[in-house]
Specification:
By secondary structure, this protein is mostly helical. Among the domains are: about 1-25 and about 385-480, no CATH class; about 310-385, no CATH class; about 485-535 and about 555-705 and about 765-910 and about 930-1029, no CATH class. Pathway: Glycolipid biosynthesis; glycosylphosphatidylinositol-anchor biosynthesis.
Length: about 1050
Amino acid sequence: MQKASVLLFLAWVCFVFYAGIALFTSGFLLTRLELTNYSSCQEPPGPGSLPWGSQGKPGACWMASRFSRVVLVLVDALRFDFAQPQHSHVPGEPPVSLPFLGKLSSLQRILEIQPHHARLYRSQVDPPTTTMQRLKALTTGSLPTFIDAGSNFASHAIVEDNLIKQLTSAGRRVVFMGDDTWKDLFPGAFSKAFFFPSFNVRDLDTVDNGILEQLYPTMDSGEWDVLIAHFLGVDHCGHKHGPHHPEMAKKLSQMDQVIQGLVERLENDTLLVVAGDHGMTTNGDHGGDSELEVSAALFLYSPTALFPSTPPEVSRFLRTYSAATQDLQAKELHQLQNLFSKASADYQWLLQSPNGAEATLPTVIAELQQFLRGARAMCIESWARFSLVRMAGGAALLVAACFICLLASQWAISPDFPFRPLLLIPVAWGLVGTIAYAGLLGIIELKLDLVLLGAVAAVSSFLPFLWKAWAGWGSKRPLATLFPIPGPVLLLLLFRLAVFFSDSFVVAEARATPFLLGSFILLLVVQLHWEGQLLPPKLLTMPRLGTSATTNPPRHSGAYALRLGIGLLLCTRLAGLFHRCPEETPACHSSPWLSPLASMVGGRAKNLWYGACVAALLALLAAVRLWLCHYGNLKSPEPPMLFVRWGLPLMALGTAAYWALASGADEAPPRLRALVSGASMVLPRAVAGLAASGLALLLWKPVTVLVKAGAGAPRTRTVLTPFSGPPTSQADLDYVVPQIYRHMQEEFRGRLERTKSQGPLTVAAYQLGSVYSAAMVTALTLLAFPLLLLHAERISLVFLLLFLQSFLLLHLLAAGIPITTPGPFTVPWRAVSAWALMATQTFYSTGHQPVFPAIHWHAAFVGFPEGHGSCTWLPALLVGANTFASHLLFAVGCPLLLLWPFLCESQGLRKRQQPPGNEAEARVRPEEEEEPLMEMRLRDAPHHFYAALLQLGLKYLFILGVQILACALAASILRRHLMVWKVFAPKFIFEAVGFIVSSVGLLLGIALVMRVDGAVSSWFRQLFLAQQR
């Protein structure tokens, strides 16, 4: 089996998974059709004519304008209780003191003094509560769809009928200032605009101060009809500090002053609207549909008395949308149209007969409210309609991909299985199916759907592979071998997959995962004790037939695995302290250690925590260096090890310096703020650049060995034996005689060479036994530093626990994995399952949750404090790297599961065992010391080595694949569940993206091992040629 075949086969399996995920997503997360129709001011919203306005005049609207000018102040994330009047507390109870209460005192004063001129409403917004989707809803009157939340990074121009378009068409001068998201939504629509970068959530003042510089001069100039000011300070303060921080009181007080200044400047024909686009959670996040997120404030004020509302314009939209898409229920649409016609007729009669207004007005209001509720419910049902065919096809492809992983992982270790022909067959058939499908669409003139094209390619490649593999090879094997997962592992896996079908368990997964991991660890210890494998892995050779002699006792008792298990449980418990509570559990309190140091108030506590974070960073660096020094790779003069000696300390220094600047940026003197801002931009980029340089050096020179050459007598060859003392059976002789024969041949050849020269060139190579693991550990460390920068400072403690957990788990798993030579090599299912479970546990321990409000948006500005301009892919990449850091690290490090048992051979006997009484001879012959081969045993059977890597990759993909399959099935079966968009849909999206990141990381990790293997082969060839010369 060749290296390219392994990577191509894994890439093909990943493609089948990707096709299934894309097909299921296209049927589950549907987007609505955006109509390009525009209404006209002259067209009435319903049947008949309305008896007001200026009918008959050219260009007159069906409704006369009440105000000549409007000032819209949009305070991002203005939750309703931020603006709610603070009533006096109940006698006998302590007053409630929260930073955000009572700070908008001007609203309360206006409501009390001028009750007929002002109104304060609780605005119930529709999820997703992200800014761009809420702006679309506010300006178009439509409902945002769930999948649109993903475009919050990349705002697209609105093509629907919208308020800004209608104002500009009517000749109104619209002036905007604030969030630059409006620039992308309404390009070129404003007569004057002042845009400010909006995505830097750490900046509380730039946007607000920029607005204030232009707001009052623009109002005084009078060159406007509609003035829109979108403030971001409250939203950014929530993201950075949360609503309970003193900074929130400052921002709300600033907004109160803005409102007071506007009220003083308003003229009688001007309407002031102060609104929030959404709310925020207790952590300051938004994006979901919790009560605090969908509750926003809406305040109206005018120097003249306000007036009751008029009939809404919704009926025409329903008729137009139904004609364009045929997607609304005809019966329900007809009922709504009849209800609207009756309400319009009653309203006309009310205007013509004002005497009966008191009795008729409540009826008209009730009819209009019923119409609006019915229209909203029908649109939600239509836009949440699922394509069951696509969902079933996507789930079927996921099942097929899991089946491929399960079958091929069993067939991979068989030397006679023809992987290369079976790889070419599906690729060829996949191309044929793709070309045929594209040609058919071209003939019938249908639009090409890339999702369906990928699904056709996946099916066209999967079916021939399965038929050829089963007919030619698989049918000869018993069916029992097709399901090799051990019972206990299968039971835990099924239990974990079953919880995806319960919203309560999905919400509580952050607490359930450490429990499952701890149970798995105890199961491993018990199983190893039961199997008698509580010792470091050792070389298993040909059994000694015909003898009943006892073997040497194990070097470690059951306490060895018990200590490892206790250490793992302790690390798991400590990592659980860094937890983030989901919003569905209000009784739970998130760990305060997840917040950045900049949010801390006390200087002494901040300094202590900073010292602890730097200590964790240095401990991580020291642990990696000590590990490399223990196995000798740090002594190598190759560029990667030179970088580890000098580059890693520079990366640690840059990280610590960046943390110091980020934690005290707000406290820096004004004259140094420019310097601090520049350093905050340079330091993360420098750390990332150093990490990239280190990875490039590692790929260039991955063989980290120390070579010593010199002339002299060759070392005496050591004969390896699996027993002590002289041979006692025919099996012992069969094992020893070939080695003695090879030894005699080499000795004779050496004597012939010594007759021709002064002496042979002897080469001693050290650290070859850990050459693969050293490259993997170095690569993981270089990846960890940039990922650590994207998190809050105190997450460095979690990263230290992550490396320690991985080290302990690898040793515990290696204790039960025997090394067989010359193969086949295999990694048991329990090891792969535990590794994947630890990746999930680390995801939660780094403060993440599979919901959109829990995304760490601040990661987008690490190294880019001023924002990214028009670039959208880079902030998305940074936020994605922050969210799925654990998936990436564990996937890249997955090959360590195969390498670690060989590495642990160094804990075995390092000296050739001597017969009793020969200890003195052993002491005087130090050259007889036997250097353990460790990972070099993999090179003795390259076919088995590559097959083991393929099997490991397939097993890991299977574990991840059944998780995404379970999420897809749960989302499809429970698609009408109350919590589908709050729990199951986000869980599916996060699992899907996590699978893609993990699969890419797995391919990169296996490719790195193969790069090292190729470099080792090249190194041996050069060494052989040098010795020949």
